[in-house]
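Task card 7
Instruction: Convert sequence to structure tokens.
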Amino acid sequence: MAQPNPTAAAAKNIWHSKELKDKLLFTLVCLIIYRLGSHVTVPGVDVIALTDYFNRQGGGLLGLYDLFVGGGLSRATIFALGIMPYISSSIFMQIAQAVVPTVEKMQREEEGRKRINQWTRYITVALAVMQAWGFAAFTQSLPGAVSHPGMGFTIEMVLFLTTGAIFVMWLGEQITDRGIGNGASLIIFFSIIERFWPGIFDTFRYVSTGATNVVKLIVLGILMLLVVAGVVAITIAARKVPIQIPQRTMARGRMRDSAKSFIPLRINSAGVMPIIFAQSVIVVPGAIAQFLGNRAPWARDLADLFRPGSLLYFISSAILIVLFTYFYTAIIFSPVEIAENLKKQGGFVPGVKPGSRTAEYIDEVMSRITFPGAVFLTFIALLPVFIADQINVPFRFGGTSLLIVVGVALDTIQQMNQHLLLRKYDGFMKKGSRIRSGRMGAVGGY
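Output:
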């Protein structure tokens, strides 16, 4: 007799759980509203001229930003800034918690966390105004992109884009509170997914016109499957540090003194942030050359040295990604706090003294496992550039977008699975399995 498909059974059970079904429908409605707003253009902008500029420039910082907002920046839509001001603000407050003792203390209290969230919103508004002002100046610098340039257009652009960014922030918070998954992460997830389809169609068009061939396309497909499998594996991979927590319970008439457990240390604790930081730095020479124009030929020569695909680009990107991986891991991961919490519970790592020695041990383990995670991030970030140059396809995969998509998908499935298991339904994963993936919170573990 054929065994029932567990995934199909789990999907069917979703509609048996009214709470989960309502959460999914609410999330879907919010995402549809977001995608509809992402196609409403700000008045006074020539979208064709702006899109042509983005197509000519290719990647870079603007291209990365445009990826996260689903192409809204290149089309100058009312949601052109997307969720990015809120994510930048969240990352700023996250770093502040690690380096400012007052903010760190506030994070441990309920009222303090509410105040931090309020500060995050205020910073989001300020960042949205600055980014909108900069984008208005940028569009007016492009020939023919703005029909009536001037202060009036700038104010109009700032008003539209700032309002859109605040509304998107509100949508993300509503999804987190009343829907399923992390709202900011899901908004970026669907923005990236939307950009996949045009790339796929363009790839097949390349085959039909003879720019590439079917063999290269098959090789690309195999590489994509291998990369996706690697991303999934590294996302859920963790080093389990065994711990023992004393407790006295009766087990079959005998006293059991302690319970064995473990602390999962993720190999890729930094998530996608090291790639974003590295790409933000590597595009600086190109940005300087573009700003100076023909006035500084040396700046153009410097930008050519760091152009995507050059040897110096690969070397500098690899070094920056490794450095930023260690830097961001040190910010978001606190061995001292873990050791203190473990000591308060009376727990300990077998063979290691509680307190400072435990913190040193956890820090040493984390430092060792961070290196393979940094190497993997480097591989994932640079592979699309190499493949695009060798196979000649317009569809770039991997890197930042793939890590975000996989991380958000696993995290959302985990939350759905928890809802089902709490109500005694069969989940998407086998009983006892665990997926530990950081939220893109956003791009918080982003």
